[in-house]
Structures are given as C-alpha cells and as structure tokens.
Amino acid sequence: MKYGDEASIMRALDIDSWRNLSKDKIVKFAAMMPDMDKEVALKIIEQFPEFRLFAADSVGAMEKAHSATISANRDSQENVHKAYQDIRLILAGELKDENLTWEQKQHIYGLLMETGEKDNETHVGTQRSLGSWLKNVGTVVGLSVLAGVVFVGGRMLLETRDGTESNTDTVDT
Fold first, then answer.
1. Which of 24, 36, 43, 159 is geometrically suited to a Cys-Cys bond with 3, CB 3.0 to 4.6 A?
2. Better-scored residue on pLDDT, 70 or 134
C-alpha cells in the first residue's frame, strides 16, 4: 500500500485537516483510494457522514451557475443580434438614396451580407461555448457521482472483507 496512515494521505492532498477537503481534493482522494490501507480508508470515510449532502450541494451549485450562464448568454446574444439588426436597417435605408452609384450600392449590399454572416458567427460561437461548458459541467457532475460511488462502494467493500464476506466463491457440484 502506498498510503498506510491518515497523515500520509493528508500530505498527499496538501491538507492539515479533513475539514479542509475541498471539492477538487475529494476527487483526488477518491482516485487515491485503491492505494490506501483498507482500515485507514474506512476510518477516513467514516469522517464524511455528510458526503451525500456535499455532493448534492455541489451539483446544485453547478446547476445554478449553468442557469445564470445561460441567462446572461441569452441577454448578450439578444443585444448582439439587435445591434446587427440596427446596422442592417441603417444600411437598407442608405440603399434608398437615388444618388448612389451601382458600386456604392454593391458595397452596401456587401456590408449587409457581412453583418448577417457576423451575426451568424456570433450565434455559432456561442453555441460552441455553451456546448463546451455543458460538457465540462457533465464531467464535474460525473466525477462527483463517481466519487460518491467510490466512497459508498469502498465502504461496502471494506465491510464485506472485514468479516461479512458471503460464500459466493464456492461452487456447488
């Protein structure tokens, strides 16, 4: 075993108390569990009776942050779209000037097309950003769930190996 006592685990996590175990350190702790002495791991896990609440709070905070990001992004996207729409209205008004040459009208048509393309690029970029953000949130939520499974599964495994092992290894013939 790489970690035979609580002190070595705390040093590896760079904490001086289990109360200082942050969200990112919980994931690291879960990854370290296979290298821990079973009794030490069980003793540490027993100090986390509120882990389920911690995981639920973490997911709730991520959901709240996601909602706020979506809302802020929607407002920003609407502002950009409105600005491009205003520019196109102004350019369309300029096209009504009878004194414009064909070249000037072509230039305005080009500007109209350019604003439409930039408006679309902004939309596509926003969608990519949101997709990336959602993927990151999914990863964090997945890791939180994984950490919970490791905690619960590790505890069950330790309890099973500590004496309540079933006889499923034998095969009746």
1. 36
2. 70
